[in-house]
Specification:
It is a single chain. The protein is mainly beta and 718 residues long. The protein is built from 7 helices and 45 strands. The strands form 11 sheets. Strands 35, 38, 39, 41, 43, 44 and 45 form a 7-stranded mixed beta sheet that branches. The protein has a 5-stranded mixed beta sheet with strand order 1-2-3-6-10, with no helix packed on it. Strands 4-7-11-12-13 form a 5-stranded parallel beta sheet, with no helix packed on it. Strand 23 and strand 24 form a beta hairpin. It is elongated, with a radius of gyration of 40 Å. It starts with a helix and ends with a helix.
Length: 718
């Protein structure tokens, strides 16, 4: 028995020696392989668990795969060893270490007496490793059920017909390091709708995307040098932009593209004067936007194409609108002869936005086939006027039709500006004009007497911004029996009633949490608040005085460390700070209104927002009547600016108070909440009689600006 077993084993081993190299061997449970498919690469074929005769092909090892011939004839059979099962392979897994996919690894075709036959795989899933550099010819061709393939970022070469006929592919992303795309590599991928070809690809070969019937968008990156014959033939392209790096075009690259509206050839193009063949390069009835040289070069190759060598440009200078036609591919220098002039202003160039903030770059070429609108920019001083009207006369004595819009205007250098107090600003019977506050002018440039209701000055040539504010003061006789509340945080208070210093006689209370001191000050008393430098947090510097529940009297220099005013109402004021490393833009830019940095409350520093928010933000803040620091002050400012409209609801907030002097704040708070200018901080389900407004909660610069802009929109839409 033992001898017989030995004999059988010897016989079986002898049979194995006669099997050809790479022959199919069957493992347990129907696994086939391993197949030798490279010097250090093997493959196995294992059945899937779907109960059907389907397989998973797994390729492992290190280095490149072998190449195969997908055509089987009577005299040649160099197909992949698993070719008899190709039509049943649904999954391909390529392991780490494999560097290339061989040619025809999933392709099997043959000829017989009845003609040509091709097995189209039922491949549905592909896993490719990072490190793979090449996808072989016809690797996945005619795989209609393959819907998605993630090409590794390391792939540099996709050979011919690699994905041809993969009609199920709807999206594919070409890696940024891809260098070579084979001809017909995506031929017939009718599911693709868009493709981006990276700049690393220098040549788009013949038929690369031909008959991708649903391909609507192709992005060609700068760096592509050649587009081959019929590269995008029979697609649904709506437009095609050929970058200026392209030097050669094959014939009929967009033949039968019936949805193509236009082609643009970026200038300056380096297209050679020789083309493949002598037929039409585009061969389609479409518009071709190009520089004039290319029209002369291409016309005899494109009997159906209509060449357009100019683009439409609309020049806007105030109310003057001028249409122009500029040579395609020209730069802004083409408009030099169209530079406008305006008395007293310096032309600063053409801009793409009406606010003249985005200048059209000098080097950018006019290739805007849909036209472009450019706006004339002018240099002048930004003038902000509060409580006044203006008239402007140019340096040669010519009156200029310049009006304030939202309190702002741009005035030319050398012009004479007359500012007249607007009496509508003193509608309250207790107010009268007092003087003008002026920033942005040197002392020798300011009017000598700023107490006159009408002042005149000349605009300096080097001035960026000028701010002027008409200051009103109370015209009533002080009532010795009336006292107002003065709340100060971060300052030292001195109060004079007539010629007598009454500071030490005032009733004062201190909030131990915030350090705020509240004084009872006689009506008409002169108050001086000086910054208490001992309270400045470490690493910070003083920035500005900010108002709280009640606003400061008009006309204060909020950036001065010491301010003086007459008590005629309740006043709430707090010192604001900023990081010492942040430079101040100075009064010449912001005038009497500045950007708030941070506020100190007790020992804590409340960060509002970054200080350096830019000139645009600063300009918007200049439109504010004052800068509120908490919710109540913000509500009052918005409500007063809106004309004190009555809210729809008469809800009284318990934390605001119901005293007569707080009724305006009640109305302001309700109105602001109804119009969603200030966020509601109450919990859902709070009973109306328990609703709180949280009047002392701080507001940031962003909160204030957003609320102000929204309030202005409400006014415009009213």
């Amino acid at each position: 028995m033992k001898k017989r077993l030995i004999s059988l084993l010897l016989a079986f081993s002898m049979m194995l020696t006669f099997l050809p190299a790479g022959a199919v061997s069957a493992f347990a449970e129907g696994t086939w392989g391993p197949y030798v498919c490279g010097e250090n690469v093997t493959a196995t074929l294992s059945p899937n668990s779907d109960g059907k005769e389907t397989y998973t092909l797994t390729i492992t090892g290190n280095g490149p795969m072998a190449n195969y011939n997908g055509y089987k004839t009577s005299s040649n059979n160099s197909c992949a060893p698993w070719c008899e099962k190709i039509q049943n392979i649904t999954r391909l897994i390529v392991g780490d270490g494999v560097t290339t996919l061989g040619d025809d690894i999933l392709s099997y075709s043959y000829y017989d007496d009845s003609g040509y036959h091709s097995f189209h795989p039922n491949l549905r899933e592909v896993e490719l490793p990072e490190g793979l550099s090449c996808i072989g010819a016809r690797a996945f061709c005619d795989s209609p059920n393959l819907n998605e393939v993630k090409i590794p970022s390391t792939v540099t070469k996709i050979k011919e017909y690699a994905f041809s006929g993969c009609t199920g592919l709807t999206k594919i992303e070409l890696p940024p390091q891809l260098e070579e795309v084979g001809y017909n590599s995506f031929y017939g991928c009718s599911g693709l709708t868009e493709i981006t070809i990276p700049s690393s690809v220098k040549t788009i070969p013949s038929g690369a995307f031909e008959k991708c019937f649903n391909l609507e968008s192709v992005t060609l990156s700068e760096g592509i040098c050649e587009i081959g014959t019929e590269a995008f033939k029979s697609t649904k392209l709506k437009s095609l932009n050929i970058p200026k790096s392209v030097k050669k075009l094959g014939r009929d690259i967009v033949d039968s593209c019936h949805h193509l509206a236009y082609i643009t050839i970026e200038a300056p193009s380096q297209l050679e004067e020789t083309f493949e063949g002598n037929e039409g390069v585009f061969h389609c009835n479409t518009k071709v936007y190009c520089e004039p040289r290319l029209e002369r070069l291409l016309w005899h190759f494109n009997e159906y194409a209509g060449f357009i060598t100019t683009v439409d440009v609309t020049l806007v200078d105030g109310d003057k609108i001028t249409p122009k036609k500029i040579a395609y591919g020209a730069n802004i220098a083409a408009l030099d002869k169209d530079k406008p002039t305006k008395q007293g202003y310096t032309f600063t160039g053409w801009y793409t936005d009406a606010d003249c903030k985005i200048r059209y770059p000098d080097a950018q070429l006019f290739t805007n086939i849909n036209g472009i609108k450019l706006y004339a920019g002018w240099a002048g001083s930004d003038l902000t006027v509060k409580n006044g009207t203006i008239s402007v006369v140019a340096s040669d004595g010519t009156p200029l039709a310049i009006e304030l819009k939202n309190g702002k205007a741009k005035v030319p250098a050398g012009a004479t500006v007359t500012v007249t107090f607007d009496r509508a600003a003193a509608t309250d019977n207790d107010l009268k004009f007092d003087h003008w506050n002026i920033s942005g002018l040197n002392e020798d440039e300011k009017p000598k007497d700023t107490s006159q209701e009408e002042i005149t000055f000349t605009v300096p040539a080097d001035r960026r911004a000028i701010a002027i504010e008409g200051v009103c003061k109370s015209d009533k006789t002080p009532d010795a029996n009336t006292e107002y509340q003065l709340s100060v945080t971060g300052g030292i208070v001195t109060v004079k009633n007539g010629d007598k210093d009454v500071t030490d006689t005032l009733t004062v209370t201190t909030d131990e949490t915030t350090g705020k001191k509240t004084y009872s000050v006689p009506d008409g008393a002169e108050v001086t608040v000086t910054l208490d430098k001992t309270l400045i947090p470490e690493g910070m510097v003083f920035d500005i005085w900010s108002t709280g529940k009640f606003s400061l009297p008009l006309g204060q220099d909020y950036k001065a460390e010491t301010i003086t005013f007459t008590m005629s109402s309740d006043v709430d004021i707090a010192a604001q700070y900023r990081d010492a490393t942040i430079e101040d833009d100075g009064p010449g830019v912001l005038g009497t209104v500045a950007i708030i940095g941070t506020a100190a409350v007790g020992g804590a520093v409340l960060g509002y927002q970054a200080y350096s928010l830019g000139a645009e933000f600063a300009g918007k803040l200049m439109a504010l009547p004052y800068f509120p620091s908490n919710r109540s002050a913000l509500a009052m400012m918005l409500w007063e600016d809106a004309g004190k409209p009555m809210p729809e609801s008469e809800l009284l907030y318990p934390d605001v108070g119901q005293e007569e002097r707080d009724m305006d704040l009640q109305h302001a708070a309700r109105w602001a909440m109804e119009n969603e200018l200030i966020p509601d901080l109450n919990d859902e389900g709070t009973a109306p009689e328990e609703m709180k407004f949280y009047p002392d909660n701080a507001v940031s610069k962003i909160d204030v600006l957003n609320a102000w802009q929204k309030a202005q929109e409400l006014k415009q839409n009213a």
